[in-house]
Amino acid sequence: MAKIAPDPSPLLIFLLLLHHATAAMPPTSSPSAPTPSSTPTPKPPSRSSPISSSTLDPKQLRALQSLNIPTSKDPCSPSPPHSAAASCDSSAPFRHLLSLTLSNCSEDVALSLTALKSLSTLTSLSFVNCPVTPIRFPAELTSNLHSFTCINSLEKLTGVWLSRLQNVTDLTVSHVGVTASGPTIILGGMKFLHSVTLSHTNLSGYLPKHWHPNLTFVDLSANHLRGKIPISLTRLENLVHLNLSSNSLNETIPTTIGDLSSLQNLSLASNSLSGPIPESLAALPALTHLDLSSNQLNGTIPNFIRDMKKLKYLNLASNSFHGVLPFNATFIKRLEVFKVGANSNLCYNHTVLGSKVKLGIAACDKHGLPLSPPPAKNSAADDSSDGSDDDYDDDNVLEKKHHNGPSKVVLGVAIGLSAIVFLIVFLVLLSKCCK
Ligand SMILES: *[C@@H]1O[C@H](CO)[C@@H](O)[C@H](O)[C@H]1NC(C)=O
Ligand SMILES: *[C@@H]1O[C@H](CO)[C@@H](O)[C@H](O)[C@H]1NC(C)=O
Ligand SMILES: *[C@@H]1O[C@H](CO)[C@@H](O)[C@H](O)[C@H]1NC(C)=O
Ligand SMILES: *[C@@H]1O[C@H](CO)[C@@H](O)[C@H](O)[C@H]1NC(C)=O
Ligand SMILES: *[C@@H]1O[C@H](CO)[C@@H](O)[C@H](O)[C@H]1NC(C)=O
Ligand SMILES: *[C@@H]1O[C@H](CO)[C@@H](O)[C@H](O)[C@H]1NC(C)=O
Ligand SMILES: *[C@@H]1O[C@H](CO)[C@@H](O)[C@H](O)[C@H]1NC(C)=O
Ligand SMILES: *[C@@H]1O[C@H](CO)[C@@H](O)[C@H](O)[C@H]1NC(C)=O
Ligand SMILES: *[C@@H]1O[C@H](CO)[C@@H](O)[C@H](O)[C@H]1NC(C)=O
Asked: Which of 214, 236, 238, 262 has the most ligand 4 atoms within 8 A of CB, as the residue to mutate?
């Protein structure tokens, strides 16, 4: 910046202007509250059924009211949004609740054993942003529940409490502290489990050795799980989604990972995994989302990745890969997200990718080694813009024009204005001294 404005007073004005300009910009990111967006949305209120004239069992209605949930006269019929969203069966003379979602609960909401006993016809129960104190569910309810969801609700849970829900096929627990020796105590007895999310729960311990063969969805991300990824996990041939990111898993990725023949999403990001990308991954043609970023993986990036026709998201950043990047521009443009930055020994072939790419890695010399210094920057403006170094770590996507837009405009205006001010000051001084 000193190069642009050598005179002290315009520099001061320039800095002031810059300060104002940056202060006027809206904050780029706000502390994000737990987002239930990635999890199943509550079921819509009941569809009308042939015998829709009947209403909810009065006993169940009283039970709902006793929980202090705002409830309409007939929770079974579609009604304006309430904090209780319900669906019911179509039995006569009275209908019974099948699913219930309690969201955004007030402090008055309190669970009681009597009320829950009356609500034991529920097969699906969800708590979303509902910080009530958990109580032990009556046996009739745990026996009937097929789906249980708890997002940022029920304060704290224990593994023992969750492990009682043995008939569930779908279990979603996120942004709730869960105290347990590990996932095994929770999942071990759930014989019918198809889909499990235990995410942002501070769960510690090791990954289970035994898994239910019918699992299709496993998200154990953002916990404190440690140890290695067990080979038994790679035998789940129905698994479409595996997210173990943000844990403390170590050792190598099992070479049998390619046995997960239905897999579409694989995230092992932000662990301490080492060793190479297993060759067997080539056998996963349905893979759309591959995130192995922020580990200590090494070796070269395998050629077979460019033949994965379904791939939309590829993040291999922040590892220890080396060698020449095996991708051309056609491949990279097809992806929605492509990140390979922060791999200091990885480089790209200038002849194949040209000089305009910004991947956060250096171009290769003729021996396939990174040319130093790393990423050649394009323009002087980039050089002087704040935090351009960070850009290479975080925004190392091919097309990143949009990211720099606002700050470049602000900088340009600031430089322009300061030049004008400088000119005026200069002219005033000139006119004074030449009088
Ligand atoms: C709960 O609150 C959030 C924001 O606080 C709002 O977006 C959401 O629609 C609310 N949900 C219900 C079911 O009222
Ligand atoms: C699971 O459901 C069956 C009936 O479908 C019931 O007999 C059994 O007791 C239930 N298990 C638990 C742990 O509630
Ligand atoms: C997990 O632990 C951290 C640190 O102890 C704490 O700040 C955070 O609130 C905990 N998260 C949950 C969901 O309990
Ligand atoms: C898995 O699902 C199949 C069919 O959906 C079923 O026949 C089988 O019993 C299930 N296996 C287990 C262990 O639940
Ligand atoms: C995996 O989990 C992390 C943390 O919960 C989340 O940010 C990420 O989007 C998930 N990845 C996929 C593919 O769903
Ligand atoms: C894969 O992950 C993405 C991003 O989290 C998500 O939108 C998509 O539904 C996931 N697909 C499957 C099959 O779980
Ligand atoms: C990868 O790292 C492991 C140790 O984590 C080391 O034994 C191996 O030689 C490394 N391989 C390559 C190709 O650098
Ligand atoms: C780019 O690589 C793909 C394989 O990933 C290949 O099919 C294609 O022909 C290449 N395109 C160019 C322009 O070299
Ligand atoms: C870069 O690509 C060109 C053309 O495909 C090839 O001749 C050259 O050997 C490659 N260089 C490296 C270092 O791989």
From this structure: 214
